[in-house]
Amino acid sequence: MFAVTTAVGSSFVMACAPSTGNDSGDQNPADPSLRDLAFVTPFQHIINYADVYVAIQEGYFEQEGLRIEPIGGSGTASSISQVSASQAFFGKAAAVITCPLIADTGATIITVAQGDQKSQYSVASLPDKPLTHPEQWQGKTIGVISKGGSTELLLDAMSVAEGLDPTKVRKVVTGADVGSLEFLNRGEVDGFITYLGSETAFEQRGIELNYLNTDDFAKMPGDSYFVKSADVQKEGESIVGFLRASRKGYQFLEKSENLDKVLTAVGAYNEVEVSDQELAQLKVQAQVPLCKPESGDYLSVDLASWESAVELMRRSGIMKDTKMPIENFVTSEFVDQI
């Protein structure tokens, strides 16, 4: 489990990101009164984490007495390991990854806010041969983003949720970019797991597919902010401050008049990600409904969803533990203080 990575397939460049409170080339000298903390992304610097880049650019973290340095991770495992080792303060990962690591391997982390309120993954299929239920891919071949990764786990969980045997589904790696469609067009797979970014790219190109969101059968909280468990008691002020700034970042994202500034904020860390401005804007617009709960309060923790997800992970064998209480995995204590 600890080798699991989250591949999202976007283009990226490794760049030296700004380490002060804005992305301007003529930054002011670092304010010694600000608390320096690092955030490790699950995968490089992409639009999925735009709330943080915007909060840096707009000075929201500075208002909370923080200076946040985003570090582009090489996979979910790197985010979790760096936070566990106190090499970073904040990380981000989905429940299907964090919960088994906490329960079965003793990972010393806890989720403090839920970013994705809806799964960014779907089973894509041809419109004239749509896959609308897990029973339809029993005995067939489905493409996953990575072997043993979160998409394969979610696919298995969808089968288990309907009382089906996940071992009767053949999985092959099709990746996470638009090239995964070729596997479907050549008839090598009957469907494949896609994520929000590639769905947006297909939409831009006028490619029509049928999408079955994994939440329809296996609802699992998506990418969520976590910290080291030991920091919960002593670092409450910094945690709340980070989350308050992040929520302001999300609120900034949802206003169409801010799109250019959002792309500037992301581009400060990854120019390639925003080089196709039309596609980048579509990704930002798609990200907002993914992250906005019905209450409208970004980062809200859906505890009922976490409880049902933990139960499903136990039933599907993703998690071996059967007794650990929900409060060991997630807390709404800090987001409730925003």
TrEMBL record:
SsuA/THI5-like domain: residues covered: 48-253
Classification via Pfam families: NMT1
Keywords recorded for this protein, A-Z: Iron, Metal-binding, Pyridoxal phosphate, Thiamine biosynthesis, Transferase
One Gene Ontology term of the molecular function aspect: transferase activity
GO BP terms: proteolysis; thiamine biosynthetic process
Reactions catalysed, as given in the entry: N(6)-(pyridoxal phosphate)-L-lysyl-[4-amino-5-hydroxymethyl-2-methylpyrimidine phosphate synthase] + L-histidyl-[4-amino-5-hydroxymethyl-2-methylpyrimidine phosphate synthase] + 2 Fe(3+) + 4 H2O = L-lysyl-[4-amino-5-hydroxymethyl-2-methylpyrimidine phosphate synthase] + (2S)-2-amino-5-hydroxy-4-oxopentanoyl-[4-amino-5-hydroxymethyl-2-methylpyrimidine phosphate synthase] + 4-amino-2-methyl-5-(phosphooxymethyl)pyrimidine + 3-oxopropanoate + 2 Fe(2+) + 2 H(+)
Pathway entry: Cofactor biosynthesis; thiamine diphosphate biosynthesis
Reported function: Responsible for the formation of the pyrimidine heterocycle in the thiamine biosynthesis pathway. Catalyzes the formation of hydroxymethylpyrimidine phosphate (HMP-P) from histidine and pyridoxal phosphate (PLP). The protein uses PLP and the active site histidine to form HMP-P, generating an inactive enzyme. The enzyme can only undergo a single turnover, which suggests it is a suicide enzyme.
Family stated for the protein in its record: Belongs to the NMT1/THI5 family.
Assembly and binders: Homodimer.
Protein name in the entry: Thiamine pyrimidine synthase
The organism's taxonomic lineage, starting at the top: Bacteria, Bacillati, Actinomycetota, Actinomycetes, Pseudonocardiales
